[in-house]
Amino acid sequence: MISAYFIHLLILVGIYLILALSLQLAVGFTGLLNLGHIAFYCVGAYVSALLSLLGWPFWLYFLLAGIIAMLFGFLLSLPTNKLKGDYLALATLGFSFVIYALALNWTSFTRGPLGLPGIPRPVIFGYVFSNNLSFLILTFVVVLISYLIIKKITISPFGRVLQAVRDNELATRVLGKNTFKIKSVALGVSAFFAGFAGSLYASYITFIDPSSFTLMQLIPVICIVIIGGLASLKGTVIATIILVLLPEPLRFIGFPSSILGPARQIIYALILLLILIYKPKGFFGKVQLE
Questions:
Q1: What is the CA radius of gyration of the chain?
Q2: Closest CA to 163 of 17, 285, 278, 75
């Protein structure tokens, strides 16, 4: 029982880690304060769920979840490319509300608040990832591949251009770089991996509905990015483990479920406030949040 519980937590750590790493690419390395990241997560989950229910193979609907989420990332970059800071945050937040509204009201497609039940577990070469231990291995493989690809991007010449856009977009443009294209690619790649996280979530929980993709689900991911430190993948990994596991002891104190959820949000808020006050760059941040 205990081991099954910890396996469940490790799977959640893996899913949140992919989501946080992908957001780190946009926020920490490119300087795009994207509050619409949960929308890409939602798109990936619904694409994966709908195609899997139609009997599509795992590798195909998993890849399409990332690709379609990436297309939404490119789509979002078009009207928001000239926005910065608070204006970009508000615009991307509005985008997440639009995706949530579609998931909630497009009942003929998403079943609205009834959700999509009975999502099948992944099947690869005839092997069904029916138990949580096997799903943990699958999640670990996806996390490792995602981390290595994002790490490779950040240390590549393109990654250095992303950081140049973050630090001084005007100077980067003067040097002849197409910052519109660079930011669009960064947002698209970020959305691509968020789609992967959504696909894993849908396959693991086997049920999704719009309530799984609200602003409340985005708050822990933003906390992870800020607390771990902007432009720090190592900090993101450590912060994900801490923030996902830290509230769990509350379950054993005997708090009712009506208190457990708000208590978790209070803990996240307190940690975030303390970090912003006493360590503005986070654990391993290279830049300070403006």
A1: 19
A2: 285
Structure tokens at 129: 């990832």
Residue type, 245: L
Contact (Cβ atoms closer than 8 angstroms) between residue 232 and residue 282: yes
Tell me how far apart the alpha carbons of residues 8 and 131 are, in angstroms, rounded to a whole number: 11
Taking the complete model, does pTM exceed 0.90, yes or no?
yes
Predicted pLDDT of residue 256: 64
- Which tokens belong to 211? 């309530």
Burial 136-158 (b: 16+ CB within 10 A, else e): bebbeebbeebbeebeebbeeee
- Where would I find the H helices in the chain? 2-27, 37-53, 58-80, 85-105, 107-110, 132-155, 157-167, 169-174, 179-205, 215-228, 233-245, 257-278
67-91: per-residue pLDDT in tens?
A: 999 999 999 999 988 888 889 999 9
On the CB side of 24, CA atoms within 13 Å amount to 34
The answer to whether the CB of 61 falls within 8 A of the CB of 51 is yes
Contact yes or no for 52/205 (Cβ under 8 A): no
Q: What is the DSSP string of 136-176?
A: HHHHHHHHHHHHHHHHHHHHSHHHHHHHHHHH-HHHHHHTT
Task: Give residue for tokens 């949530």.
Answer: 100
CB-based contact 220:214 (threshold 8 Å) = no
Three-state DSSP at 287 gives strand
Nearest CA to 15 out of 221, 179, 157 is that of: 221
β-sheet bridge partners, residue 123: 128
Can you give the length of the chain in residues?
290
Would you call 38 exposed, middle or buried from its count of C-beta atoms within 10 A (0-12, 13-18, 19+)? buried
Q: What is the pLDDT of residues 33-70, one digit of tens each?
A: 899 999 999 999 999 999 999 999 999 999 999 999 99
